Amino acid sequence: MTQLSPSANAYLVNKVLSASPEELRLMLLDGAVRFTRQGRDGLVAKNYEIAFNGFSQARNIVMELINSIRPEVNPDLCAKVSGVYTFLYTQLIEAGHERSIPKADKVIQLLEYERETWALLMQQLAAEKGAAANLAAVPTLTQTPAPGERRAAFSVSA
Question: What pLDDT is stored for residue 21 in this prediction?
Fold first, then answer.
């Protein structure tokens, strides 16, 4: 396992502590992909220690993803998502025990798809928040001024 320099470690800690829940989930998915690739590369190189370490880290991240699911929000959706993550976890175990590159490849493919889907959702939510913020910033003139009251004037200069 690679040791991070003190400055890189401080950067990572700061990044995690300042991240939104959505960004944290994206970081977890990135880590799961990276460690599964590491495990796969270890299998290819027949370096089973690297494979074991990579798959172990990926399993830990997938377990964190499972544990972060909140069924009180949407039980049916959470059950389906939990099933997908449980499948990934099982495939990671089998890829390591069977030294199966195809199973590792399948996990990588599914994790990358999940990561891409999550990133698109984050973009859509950001766009919706931006549109809502823009609408909130638009002044509305729904009230008619009282007799003798002046409306505020807006001017735009080029």
Answer: 86
